[in-house]
Amino acid sequence: MRNKPRSGGETMNKITQSLSMLSLLSGIVFASIVGAPAHAEKLDEQLFTLVKIDQFEYRAQDGNDLLSWEGQGRIGNDEHRLALKTEGEYVRNENKFEGAEVQLLYQRPISNFFDAQIGVRQDIKPNPSRTFGVIGINGLAPQWFETDASFFVSNKGDASARLGLEYDILFTQRLVLEPSAEINVAFSDDEPTGVGSGLSNVELGLRLRYEIEREFAPYIGVNWERKLGRTSDFAREEGGDDNVFSIVAGIRVFF
């Protein structure tokens, strides 16, 4: 049995606390953006565009195969960029989307290796849908780990955070092994969407790609996702899996 819904007072307190956290972090990000060091040379004001599909893959798993995607489009110059990011999963056997989200972000460099980001995220699935404020950073951490860290506050006042890491291991100039990890943490329960407070889920992947061209690379690999804590409890209550291993095959494209 799930707990009874939160009272209006509890919801308002949660919204107030989460918005205060978002406001503080937004201020830090804004200060970093405004205070970003000026370049000695004049920056090229030409607009650049990029469409990058990091993952478009088929996930074979125990009786519930998925089509999964993760990608983004960007437009901007050296200092100001607008990014549209999307990811999600489609359950092939049930002909329905299991999850789908879109983020619209403004980003600007705050160092030679990192961009600050601020914007909105819309979850299309699961139901009921949620809208989030987003702040974060994206770039290359020491040892060349590609890092994407975000903090979210939903329209219901629930706060959460996500950390994504990727790393390329080059066997040859064309054959690349990519380990990846994603960690999600929720700071409160959002029972209608099946998210519990605490460390909610961990996803690990290992993909081997062959770059036919730099812009086009088929790959194969494995992926493992584990729901934890209250999120795991909610999944089992709904008859879902909280521990899923997949064999994957897909393509990586950018232009």
Largest sheet: 12 strands, antiparallel, barrel
CATH topology of the domain at 8-34 and 57-62 and 114-254: Porin
Q: Assess the beta-strand content as a share of residues.
A: over 45%
Helix content: 10-25%
Give the total of beta strands. Answer: 13
The CA-CA distance between the termini, in Å, is 49 Å
Query: Given the C-alpha coordinates, what overall shape results?
Result: globular
Question: How many helical stretches?
Answer: 2
Structural class: mainly beta
Keywords:
globular, mainly beta, Porin, 255 residues, 14% helix, single chain
Describe the structure.
- With 255 residues, the chain is mainly beta.
- It has a domain at 8-34 and 57-62 and 114-254: Porin (Beta Barrel).
- The protein is 14% helix and 56% strand.
- The chain has two helices and 13 strands; from the N terminus they run αββββββββββββαβ.
- It has helices spanning 8-34, 229-237, and strands at 48-60, 66-76, 81-91, 96-109, 114-125, 130-141, 145-154, 159-166, 169-170, 175-186, 198-210, 216-227, 243-254.
- A twelve-stranded antiparallel β-barrel has the order 1-2-3-4-5-6-7-8-10-11-12-13.
- The termini are far apart.
Topology at a glance:
Elements: H1 8-34, E1 48-60, E2 66-76, E3 81-91, E4 96-109, E5 114-125, E6 130-141, E7 145-154, E8 159-166, E9 169-170, E10 175-186, E11 198-210, E12 216-227, H2 229-237, E13 243-254
Antiparallel strand pairs: 1-2, 1-13, 2-3, 3-4, 4-5, 5-6, 6-7, 7-8, 8-10, 9-10, 10-11, 11-12, 12-13
Summarize the structure.
The protein is mainly beta and 255 residues long. It contains 2 helices and 13 strands.
